[in-house]
Amino acid sequence: MYPLVSLRRLFLVGVAALFGVFVVYAIVGNAITGIDARCWWWFITHRSNSMTTVMQAAAWLFDPPMVALFSGIMLTAVAIFRRRFALEALTFIAIESASLTTHLLKDVIGRHRPPVVFRLTSETNFSFPSGHATAAAALMTAIVVYVWLTYRLWQTLWIGLLGLAVTVFVAVSRMYLGVHWITDVIAGSLIGCGVVCCVTAIGALLINAIQRHPHTDAASHTAR
């Protein structure tokens, strides 16, 4: 059973993150702001061969399909080891729900990416929000939430800080490669965090309800 207070807090964190996405879009819409242009240009003018290799590796590693594959394998292995599947399945659903949300918003909002001539990697879809930033934030948030709900260790704080660092790094890589504006990666990161928190909180409540009455059908059958 997962503590109700913890699930409420988790849901509120998710709602706050998703509200942040709304605020970002309400402020910028499809327009390119001054901070977008300045941040993008700074990364464009501070490139190096070695750093480009690192950033391209990050783009490959945190591509949404790769994150789906990695998280699926990782969660399946954990589920087999623990001989429990409910939270692991829920965690995978939460991660993929975040990616799906971003995919849908890209087509609805239709914001254009930075100029093609400055890009170091090929992208064909729209810009807002960033799919890579969403995938990274969703994966890192899911790991933190899973450890917190399963073990409730104080080390969760350190895992969270590591997850934040990874998410920021992936967000920076997208600007460095010239395929996103800063508001794209901020929104993507907030979606990854917010959707995972909300979906996990709601799903864990359902798991609690099922575990609270696991033998209802069997008891009814026995009584008959």
Keywords for this structure?
globular; PAP2/HPO; Undecaprenyl-diphosphatase YbjG; PAP2/HPO_sf; transmembrane; 224 residues; Vanadium-containing Chloroperoxidase, domain 1; mainly alpha; disordered C terminus; EC 3.6.1.27
What does this structure look like?
This protein is mostly helical and 224 residues long. The protein has a single domain, classed as Vanadium-containing Chloroperoxidase, domain 1 (Up-down Bundle), CATH 1.20.144. It is 77% helix and 0% strand. It is built from nine helices and no strands. The protein has helices spanning 4-28, 34-44, 49-61, 64-82, 86-109, 131-151, 156-176, 182-212, 216-223. α4 packs parallel to α6 (131-151). The longest helix has 31 residues, at 182-212.
What topology emerges from the helices and strands here?
Elements: H1 4-28, H2 34-44, H3 49-61, H4 64-82, H5 86-109, H6 131-151, H7 156-176, H8 182-212, H9 216-223
Helix pairs in contact: 1-8, 3-7, 4-5, 4-6, 5-6, 5-8, 6-7, 6-8, 7-8
Quick recap:
Helix content is 77%, strand content 0%. It has 224 residues and is an all-alpha fold.
Whole-angstrom Rg: 20 Å
Number of domains: 1
Number of DSSP strand runs: 0
Structural class: mainly alpha
Low-confidence blocks of residues: 217-224
Summarize the main sheet: none
What is the residue-mean pLDDT, rounded to a whole number? 89
Number of helices: 9
CATH architecture type: Up-down Bundle
Distance between the termini: 29 Å
CATH class: Mainly Alpha
The helix content, as a percent range, equals over 70%
- Name the beta content range: under 5%
Shape: globular
Classify the fold: give the CATH topology. Vanadium-containing Chloroperoxidase, domain 1
Task: Give the H and E element order.
Answer: HHHHHHHHH
EC number: 3.6.1.27
GO molecular function, one term: undecaprenyl-diphosphatase activity
Protein name: Undecaprenyl-diphosphatase YbjG
Domain Phosphatidic acid phosphatase type 2/haloperoxidase: 87-200
